[in-house]
Design brief:
With about 160 residues, this protein is an alpha+beta fold. The protein is built from 1 helix and 6 strands; from the N terminus they run ββαββββ. The relative contact order is 0.20. The model has no long low-confidence stretch (mean pLDDT about 95). The structure holds decanoyl-CoA. It comes from Lysinibacillus capsici.
Length: about 160
Amino acid sequence: MEELKVEKAIQDIYPDDIAWCYGCGRLNDDGHHLRTGWHGDKTITIYTPESKYMGIPGFIYGGLIASLIDCHGTGSAALALHRKNGHEIGDGAEPPRFVTANLNVDFLKPTPQHVPLKAIGTVEEIHPKKWKVETEVYAQDTLCARGTVVLVVMPSTFLNKND
Ligand SMILES: CCCCCCCCCC(=O)SCCNC(=O)CCNC(=O)[C@H](O)C(C)(C)COP(=O)(O)OP(=O)(O)OC[C@H]1O[C@@H](n2cnc3c(N)ncnc32)[C@H](O)[C@@H]1OP(=O)(O)O
């Protein structure tokens, strides 16, 4: 499989007030720092989990795979709506914000530890407030999990709740 790198990620430009997500917030020192960018007309997140995220020794804990699919979905929807609004990462515009309404995961094969996981997403707009992202998670060339996330534009009630 070719070596891939996410050069420009939507999480790099989340404003500070929403950059704290345990999965993908760049400001959360304890988090996974998942980063999602365009990969042609698909989206991509690449992540190698640390050894402690094991389920059965040698294999990744399923909850972590769900987290990867969740944050990949949030980032993918933000990328897609940002582009629909006429913007790209780096043009100075603030990206849209999404929260997860629904997350479904099929664990297809055991996911091995110590290899980069590659989440590839296909984004579909259902209506301007609601998007769906289908994600496939590969370990090297093996399709290990497939997930669907429904994302809704974040209601303003989510802000200012961290005090
Ligand atoms: C913030 C961005 C930066 C940080 C990103 C990191 C985030 C990582 C991902 C997360 O962990 S987010 C945290 C986990 N998610 C939540 O806490 C969300 C909690 N749920 C809610 O706040 C509300 O239920 C939600 C905003 C998702 C929907 O509220 P409403 O149902 O009042 O919204 P609305 O009525 O406007 O519905 C919008 C659409 O979503 C649909 N919808 C709502 N819940 C759904 C659901 N569970 N499944 C499928 N569709 C759903 C709803 O039917 C509707 O579609 P239609 O207009 O086509 O009918």
